[in-house]
Amino acid sequence: MTRSHADAAPGPGAPRCPATPLYGPQLDGDALPGLYEDLRLRHGPVAPVSVAPGIDAWLVLGHHELLRLTREEQDFSHDPRRWTLLREGRVPPDSPILPMVGWRPALLFADGQQHRRMRAAVSDALARINGHELRRTVRAAAERLIASFAAGGTADLVPHYARKLPMEVIMRLLGLDERAGQQLVQAIAGTVVANADSANASRRMAEILGRLIEDKRRAPGNDVTSALLHHPARLSDEEVLHNLVVMFVAGNQTTVNWIATTLRILLTDPAFRSSLAGGHLTVDDALDLVLWRFPPTQNFPARYATRDLRFGGQDIRAGDMLILGLAAANQDPRVLPETGRPVVGNRSHLAFGAGPHACPAQDPARLIARTAVDTISHRLPDMELAVREEELAWVKSPWSKGLAALPVRFADPQLPSAPAPQAPAPQAPAPHASAPHPPPAPRPAPPGALPAQRTLPQQGERR
Ligand code: HEM
């Protein structure tokens, strides 16, 4: 914050109430959920916050308001070039928010027809991923990772498993070989930290993806890049490049968090441990519980008001930034059942966003996460936490909701001979008529499943 709460004198493009910081040393991952409830009590469903020093915005905490924010593009644009603070040059070039919201010619930053055009290409490319092959690829990569640490009897499942798996799989989906994939990961990591080297990192990223695009134009393969390049929406090479970056950035850390938090639940929640053996609750139920209670992106930037308007009890001005408060909206007391707990099978959480920009990769992401969790649960059946649950810490971030570490021990790994990984192939040939998303994977019917109104266990008092 550049000014204290008491003397806050909001300028144009900033909220008119004193803004509460969403960052700072006291705000670790455990403190944020309490802060959301405090903001809800003090301000209602839309609250003034600051997301970085000098950067004020509105946090949308209400479920109903978040649906409106994501669905009504005419009032809430995705295009950061409308953002007053940016237009007035009030965002420092090294502000940590800039790499996240800087405009690119990609679907995440486009509205209306421009968005629909790029979204059709991305959705079609994702819809052509062959689920069976994707499952095989994830399982093979998971087996290899598990084999690399199984002999030791201990592992930290965040760096050794959850953080490695989605990256490897997404690189293969995009059509990159291992070496180029590693280089791209490093380059993208360099671009999202806004420091002196980020321009170089950005150049390296463009070079690697530029080479990939050239190769796939010349010799298309069964991968997402080739599908994008040859889609009738006729994306330019530059658009393909930036949409690939968005896919990687939007898909990698979120899936890492989803896998690790689900494993934590399976390791710590007695209801899940006994149910998985006895059949009442499934891995999909644990994945859903995470999406409700610990959404992998807890807050997502951003939308920009296109006009002055009254919204959630606040006066919003054209050009104000609004943040999607995904975790807070999932806990909105106006929509949670009376028990305060989500109902099994209810997927009306907002972890994937909503409206025209809702995550287009929900099915492949679930398949990756489910396979990752299933595989390690089978290979290390006696795995248990190597620290007390209270010692598990969340990464300190107002955006990402992920575990910093998940140390486990195990005595009796059940290892197979690892099959060689294969690239998952989108189904050829391309029919290209803006294919709908593939239907959600059928939920396995657990033996002795309970009626639909089961509620998920009250996991995670320490949110
Ligand atoms: C393979 C993994 C994934 C890929 C490739 C991916 C890709 C994308 C893309 C391309 C968008 C932009 C959509 C648009 O602007 O039209 C997006 C949005 C989003 N994704 Fe994903 N995603 C993945 C996994 C996830 C996961 C695991 C989560 C969280 C559970 C997630 C949450 C979101 C959210 C919250 C948005 C923003 C929605 C909005 O702005 O309204 N994604 N994703």
Q: What does this entry look like structurally?
A:
With 463 residues, the chain is of the alpha+beta class. The protein has 2 domains: 1-100 and 298-350, 2-Layer Sandwich (Uridine Diphospho-n-acetylenolpyruvylglucosamine Reductase, domain 2), CATH 3.30.43.20; 104-256 and 355-436, Cytochrome p450. Helix content is 43%, strand content 9%. The chain has helices at 32-43, 63-71, 84-87, 98-101, 112-127, 131-150, 157-162, 165-174, 178-191, 198-218, 224-229, 237-268, 270-278, 283-293, 326-330, 362-379, and strands spanning 20-21, 46-52, 55-60, 76-77, 154-156, 300-305, 309-311, 314-316, 321-324, 384-385, 407-409. A 6-stranded mixed beta sheet has the order 1-2-3-9-6-4. The chain has a 3-stranded antiparallel beta sheet with strand order 5-11-10. A two-stranded antiparallel sheet has the order 7-8. Helix 9 runs antiparallel to helix 10 (198-218) and helix 10 crosses helix 12 (237-268). The longest helix is centred in the middle third of the chain and has 32 residues, at 237-268. The radius of gyration is 22 Å and the shape is globular. The two termini are 25 Å apart. The model is unreliable at 1-12 and 428-453 (pLDDT under 50). The structure holds protoporphyrin IX containing FE. Protoporphyrin IX containing FE binds next to helix 5, helix 12 and helix 16.
